[in-house]
Amino acid sequence: MTKQPRDPSLLDAIVPLVVLAGLIGAALALFGLDALDGPIQAALIVCVLVAGLIGMKNGHTWADVERAARSAFTSITSAVLILLAVGALIGIWNLSGTIPTLVYYGIQVLSPSWYYAATAIICGAVAMSIGSSWTTAGTIGAGLIGVAAMLGVSPAITAGAVISGAYLGDKLSPLSETTILTAQMVKVDVHEHIKRQAWTSVPAFVLATVVFLILSLVRAPSVHNPVGKEVELNSLGDIYHITPWNLLPLVLLAVLSVRKVPATLALMISALFAGILGAFLQPQVMRDFVGAGENAIVGSIKGIWSAMANGFEMNSGIAEIDRLLSRGGMDSMLPTLWLIIGAVTFGAVLEEFGLINRLVDPLIQSARSTGRLFVTVFACGFGLNVVAGDQYIALVLPSRVFRLEFEKRGLAPTNLSRLAADSATVTSPLVPWNSCGAFMGAVLGVPVLSYVPYAIFNYASPALSVLYGITGFKIEKVAKGPAGGPAS
């Protein structure tokens, strides 16, 4: 007869987290921001082994560890494909002139005195239209980071504004997969869920926009150099044929996203279309990129293929232009994929062996009041973003674990759906080794720890959600469940 595995002790559940905190702290202390180039990834793999050994101590087998790892890999298939597609898109959009054209027009239209607020609003509008924070950040967001570099404003604050806008749109769009998933997990209508999310999202974004306006005025260059700006514009105009036609790949991507074409497919179609368009609109850039000696057709194919795989490299002799445009390629995303694989595998092993539930159950029992329950849900969602490294684990698990508790206490499920989204989805890009944080850092080219202080919306929205729970403001009640007694 097969022996049943033992339930983990509280110490069993705590040990992997202590090891994780210790290794990540040591990696940051020894390597600084370079820790994300490998040391933290290695630390996460060590943490997987620690959690696996604890599971084996309690009667599980190594086959159970491997099964948890397989489930983790399955859960991130979509994220892996999107990440690789975004890498390809950035490389080809730089080659074809799409991102340089965005930068060229952006420098002329956007002013440092209100740049951060404009960035947040633009990204919010785009994300709400297409329903994807990742696509927004990897396309418009990357372009706005480039504009920031040319205008002389802070890329870190710009990245915070990009993420604030992207996650506002992600939360309030009926096209967003995380919004749909949250509503499904808590069993509420998606449109009702969006309405309730607006109660925290809209005030939080207004607050963020005000802060970004203040930062634009305080942190903007005191005297923007018009001569330098003209030189930058002329340099882009000399290298590329700047025309609105270069923006057609962006328009195509928006149309495909609104028509609910899968993100990976939409990104790759836009990237390939940009490459073909660039072969006609940017023949000189294409020739310079692949080198002399190739005929136009073969050279274009080679250039598109190379930019997709290894990114685009510009050698104009102007450092600012070269730094801006030498980016992208699927291979540039490999360190990020390594990070995501390590993080979600660790989270999957913790869940497989009951270590997460062992930590969460005492928190539920100690949360006597509504306010403490809301704080507990937030701590669970954000904590899972830190520990499990994946927003889907951080979103699904609390939604599943706390749904019955909310029902017992006579709290409408829309309270939980709003709180779960604020606790898990919105905080995910604040953690460097979380799949969302790793993605944002990679596509924006700004380290997570650099933009974290400026992701204002991502602090304000969960703070308001918890505050509502503590004060009772905008908390909807329903009849209590069977275990909760009569409705009060």
From TrEMBL:
Chief localization? membrane
Residues of the Na+/H+ antiporter NhaC-like C-terminal domain? 165-473
Pfam families in the record: Na_H_antiporter (PF03553)
Membrane topology field:
Multi-pass membrane protein
Arranged from A to Z, the UniProt key words for this protein are: Antiport, Cell membrane, Membrane, Transmembrane, Transmembrane helix, Transport
InterPro entries attached to this UniProt entry: Na/H_antiport_NhaC (IPR004770), Na/H_Antiport_NhaC-like_C (IPR018461), NhaC_Na-H+_Antiporter (IPR052180)
Q: Could you tell me where this protein is found in the cell? A: Cell membrane
Which parts of the chain span the membrane according to its record?
Answer: 12-33, 39-56, 68-93, 113-131, 143-168, 198-218, 263-281, 333-353, 373-397
NCBIfam families linked to this entry: antiport_nhaC
Family as reported in the entry's similarity comment: Belongs to the NhaC Na(+)/H(+) (TC 2.A.35) antiporter family.
| Stated name of the protein | Na+/H+ antiporter NhaC
GN (gene name): nhaC
